[in-house]
């Protein structure tokens, strides 16, 4: 018996023990480990037989058995890493999954190689078991990849991301309300106690919990009853669109929240214009200057304004948010560091208290630093504590010192996650970032797959560095990433800006206008004689004309973000000198649609892969070919026939497009038939297009289509029968298509269809008999009153789950 035989047997036995431990300890890997346990238990007798057979193997077969033992040893090492990895450490789990995938390929290559010629007769059955078992263990770690891939079609719970969304979106999330009871009672006294007090405030330093206090107040049962649910929450920020905010306030007070964007609100809102004295609470969050406040707030019968600001304004009675007590600070920190409100017995109590002390009782610092230490070793804690103790105390210059302290947490992040966090400073403060925008940007500039980008989103959320917000939809746990957006605390954005701006302006990786400017910043102009090396360029201005631009060079730019507030906008001429541009994001924040000029610069964007247009008149791109463009998002835009006619042959303009989204395009009545010629299109989303009445009869020509979203298209009455030709279609969303009456009769031909979402489709009263042939169908989401139409399908196909959507009450107004 060769020594290799013995070691192979010992390693297999150890791997079996490890897998049993994984099965008992790790919920994430339990199922896969159980499968592997069964396999290794079958493998052990074979190895034992070789081990004790007394037969000396030829040298070549001994070397091959040695290779087998090395592979098993790799399995033991990976099992150790799985056991030591926290189930919340999504990013690490993703990398473990990739290592497992590499191991699986090695196993497959080994078994397909020279070994076949010598021992295939002994192990031919083992090859398939080995490949399957490693694949299952890989699956346990790569469930993240499957969940995120499925999330694009809304299948499965997508546990990590949706847990993060739920915990962040819920008003009473975890320990965020720790220590706020006293502040809530004080502000309620101010609200209820004095009828003559129409303007009051909440003030405090950045990161002290002002906004959290305001949100908790809005969700307080007594407050909601007092104001009869009439509460409007608005973020103002450093660069507010005052007219748009005034219109929203005036419309809400007058009971007309859909005021025309051209409506001119009086410079002062005279009380005689307000016919109703219904109690109303207007919360103005993140107000920076008194002149802005004076334009937004005025005395109106029954209306009270609550101003949340870092500053105390003259003549505004304010409650100043106090720092947390030592007890509350420890409770909040432990909630984010350990998932409980006290120090666990296994932790070093003195060390924990020292770190908490260094956070200086500031809620934001406690949350960020606590989350960064979760599941870390004691040596790591000691290192962070040492770095924190070297910083200055948080005194008069608290803002800079707070940023420096939280920067310590950022510097301990893995390099890729740190870079992605810093990228967030490229977006305007207090604005929601659509998750699609963020994911596409990271995919392009960091050359990572979408699955890794999603994992980074979850990791940043788990560390309290971003907040994930979900648009309200019934049965929200099944909503896709399309309904998710990202927000960030303004102090954390300041932190990202501070860290990004430490290099000289021409050498910065991100060149950002931190707030809205009237034109190009002077600092940019001062150094315009040299090329800027930025990968990300973020512009935030009002109206820009041709003469407002100057010659700037961005040879390395891969992402250009253009934020503006105006009805006319001349696109930067230097775009045609961005040869490496991969993602272009154009967002108009004004109340009206904007007309884009100089669209001819698109001709030079040979490498552009993703284009996002929001609240603009969609430009006619005749004569332009965007060969590399794969993703096109048209959101809140006026189409104006720009996608129709011979001059707008979409196949010629976008020959390789694989994802097209048209969202809230209210003048879209018919989908252009030229779209049906897009052979590469895999994802078509037509959402909230309330005047869409007809789809092209040739829609079925989209043979590569996997995702079809027709969400909230109430005027749509039929789906073309040709849809049944889409053999690759996996997901159909027709929810809130309230006038849709039936499915195509031959729907059973959709052999790949996995999910149907048909919430609020009350007019559909039967399912075609062919639906029984939907061999891949796993999930149908519908309302209770129509769930019965799927009983025959459910009876014939036990694997199909009929999910009855639950009633969902919209609190989204708190986040607007």
UniProtKB/TrEMBL annotation:
Domain of life from the UniProt record: Eukaryota
PROSITE patterns the UniProt entry points to: RPW8
| Domain named RPW8: residues | 1-149
Q: Which UniProt keywords apply?
A: Plant defense, Repeat
Pfam families, per database record: LRR_Zer-1, NB-ARC, RPW8
Set out the biological process GO terms recorded for this chain's protein: defense response
Entry's family note: Belongs to the disease resistance NB-LRR family.
UniProt protein name: RPW8 domain-containing protein
Q: List the source organism.
A: Flemingia macrophylla
